[in-house]
Amino acid sequence: MKIWVDADACPGPVRDILLRAAERLRVPTVFVANKRLNLPRSEFVSSVQVAGGPDVADAHIAAAAQAGELAMTQDIPLAALLVPKGVVVIDPRGELFSEENIAERLSVRNFMQELRDSGVMTGGPGGFSAQDRQQFAATLDRELTRLLKTRG
C-alpha cells in the first residue's frame, strides 16, 4: 500500500501530517510535483518530479495508484479517475471522495469552471484553517486505519 500526494498545491500543514503518518505507520508515501520538493530523508517518503505542464502530476498519480491505496488531492478530475479504480481519495480539508459523491463534485466543479470561463467572479475557497487541518488529520487516520486492517 502507498499514499500518493498531489504535491503541487498541498498545504504545508497537510504535508506535515502526511509525513508524520508515513513514519508512524511505516507506509510508503510518494509526493508527486512538477517542481523539486524539499522533503525529509526517510525510507518511507519519496518524491517524483514530473515535467511541467497542466495535469502531468495528475496523470502520473492516475497511472500509478492502485486499488487499496490512498491519494490526497484537491483536484476533482484526478479524484474522478482514482475513485473508480478503488483508490481512497481525500482532499486537503478532509473530504472523502467516494462513488456516491464524485459525479456531483465533478459536475459542480465543471459548472463553476464554465462560470469563470465566461467572466463570472466566483471566489475561491476560504483560507486553510486549524479546523481544516484537524478534519484532514481525522479523515486520514480513519481511512489509513481501515485500509491497513483490510490488508491484514
Automatic annotation (TrEMBL):
Q: Which InterPro entries match?
A: UPF0178
Q: What is this protein called?
A: UPF0178 protein SYV04_18800
Organism source for this protein?
Hyalangium rubrum
Question: Family assignment?
Answer: Belongs to the UPF0178 family.
List, alphabetically, the PANTHER family matched: UPF0178 PROTEIN YAII (PTHR35146:SF1)
